[in-house]
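During the first year of the project, the team set up a workflow for recording each protein of interest as an amino acid sequence followed immediately by a discrete structure-token representation. This format lets reviewers and collaborators read both layers of information side by side without switching files. As required by the reporting guidelines, we include two representative entries from the current panel. The first entry is reproduced here exactly as it appears in our internal archive.
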Amino acid sequence: MVVGHSLPRYFLNAVRSLRSCVPEGDLLVIDNASPESALRAELIGMSEVDGRLEVISRSINDVRLNGKVGSLYAAYEVAFARALEKRYGLLHLIQSDFQVLWWDDEVEARAMEIYDEHPCCVNIHTALLSRDILLGDQVEVAQPGGVLRLRRFGLTDTGLYHLGRWASTGMQFALDETIHAERYRAAGLEVLCHPWPTDAPIPWPAAIRGGRRMGREVRSTAPFLLRPASPETIAKVKGQAEHTWLEDICVPWGWVCATPMLTTSLDSVDYWVSRYRDARHNGLRHLLPRPVAGGASWWQLMRSWPPLQHRPSVVRLVVLAPLLELRRRLLARFVARRGRRS
């Protein structure tokens, strides 16, 4: 399943990538009230020529429910209700700013082994994580099996879900990600990371926040925004003992981006905090991000003018993100002082 709102290039890229990797599977697309009529028409057109693709179009994305993602989790409930109604065993869910890089039957078989080993797991994370997650206290090694576990989550909003356990425990998404993550962690559930991650969040994405678009979508003339994993890459992912990270196999196709990669909106100095921590642990050469253009040939780089699209915007990364963080902190201090005076 793919659930999304607006950002047409990302949304269509996600649907096409999932269909490309699973050409014969049932695919449900939940359009959470996208305002672009062309996007809605394109999704409906895809369903008319693909008998196993169903589109559900919602009419309202209520940002009053969640200032960050609107009524996204209400759309999730529609998706899960439909999957339970059809008696599926597993549900693979991505958001529309993701791309599925590869998939095969062994991914599902390995997931079932993990479920058997961990009866308190309902949700296996299939998304590639940036190496920056290692700079904080966010993952740990789970036993048995030695796979990674997300320390702060009992439920996440992407990945592979065991629908039998979902139904038997009466699980539901809350209006905010932190609420259901903490609720189910407190209840003893755990989110494990698939050792062979298949889904890549688009690095340095545009995002919808509070109903408004932040940033610009990537433009590329390549078939997908990210280069699909080759058979050699898939074999390497399955064969290596250590976890595979986003920066290992995520290649921007027809555009250039900075690495280490950020996978959410750039509206704080969190990325620079990660660079500082990286430099302290691994040396000064890790202080600054580096460009990666593995998806573009040198001929493309030389003949394009202006050069191929870059992400992120240097102005936003170097100037706006720090200024927004400074503004946020000054406002918080001002509010705190007013509260003490009153």
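The second entry, processed by the same pipeline in the following quarter, appears below.
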Amino acid sequence: MLKRIILAVFLLPLMASFAHADDGIDKAISDLIKPVVDPIVSTVFYSVPIFGTSFPLIVGWLVVAAVVFTVYFGFIQFRGFKHSIELVRGDYLDPKDAGEVTPFQALATALSGTVGLGNIAGVGVAVYLGGPGATFWMILAGLLGMASKFTECILGVHYRNEYENGTVSGGPMYYLSKGLSEDGKAALGKFLAIFFSICCIGGALGGGNMFQANQSFAQISSIVPFFDGKGWLFGLIMALIVGAVIIGGIKSIARVTEKIVPGMAVLYVGAALIIIIINIGALPDAVSAIITGAFSPTAVAGGAIGALIQGFKRAAFSNEAGIGSASIAHSAVQTKHPVTEGYVALLEPFIDTVVICTMTSLVITITGSWVAGDGVTGIALTSKAFEANFGGFGYVLAIAAVLFAFSTMISWSYYGLKAWTYLFGEGQAKEVIFKVIFCIFVVIGSSMSLGPVIDFSDAMIFAMAIANIIGLYMLMPKVKALVADYRAKLESGEIKKMK
């Protein structure tokens, strides 16, 4: 019965793809599901007023967990940063180790899932609502989130399933069920694992797919008039490209992400650096605005509380630390000890939030785009900031947006697939079914706005954190024991550099 219900829920939007996606159908679907979706969204994103500013409790859930893991593991994100770089370089990699991808490929795949349109549009919203001071709190939350990634990715590798054909399956659904079962809480672990998997599938098809396709189509159609009104065509092209990558599984995804992630990061950060260099004289004032704005008591939206809330929200929405999604990608890594991937994973929030989100914020702040008072926010504000000096930068931003969206889609296809196979069982036929459904949803996302569906998928992604963090709290002692074992093997020389 459970399988039938899940299939019914996630195949409902599929039926819409056979109809012409006009405004009438779009509105009809939205009106149909809105009464069901709204209560779920309002529950997951339940907010409380703090000094006149709305604060989602789910964000607090993530930030508090990040603080706990930071303290519990002795500020590992700072102490272990150098070792993280060594592992990503492959200094300790033995090609004979079990797993499907290298540490760098695992990092690139997980990063491609987090580095997305949120780094462009979301930061624009945060600075618009919270002022430059939001950047300070965004950086702080990113640094704290490194400890969350460290914790969940160690567990992802430790409790993964390794199969005879060399493939692996891992992630929260496995460490929740297997890890809690070891502690005599099998029923709770199974419930949390199923809950997580259902939410992961919903998040993969919505926020990790339809939203990305929809927003990238909006960017392309704005600079390529040919696609205006042809969302289905753009979606079909994107679906074919996505399908060509994901059909080969994690190895194919990793081969693409290890090339596209560094490329898109260099493209976007490089463009941001050019803007900053051109406006270098305004940099000190921008940095000052970020620091003073973070603690300013004036103006609710731009004051300390507003800046803190917007910064924490953007960091949580962007780097997904505590959500559990990244541990699915890291579980496929080649390694002889699970702790190595914890060190690799802690680099994600640093790159995603501390580097890329901060660059976006600096461009918006340094060009003064956020103070124009014309109501421009989100990706439009970021685009305006990038075009402040050169109009051509709008094209760079559009290309970056599409690359970010594409990389997010192929990574989330793998997350959704692993949640799917956890619920319905391993097997090529079952994997193909999900991949086909995922590609169809690319077309749907490009063709229709489906506002309530996107809201629902966002709620699903953050609902993943409810189950995941409960498990992380309960399994923290296991992670500490694994870290102690790893350090002992490093010191004894049992684990040593391979090059």
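For the second entry, the following points were noted during internal review. The first strand starts at residue 47 and ends at 50. The beta strands are 47-50, 53-56, 161-162, 168-169. Both points are flagged for discussion at the upcoming steering committee meeting.
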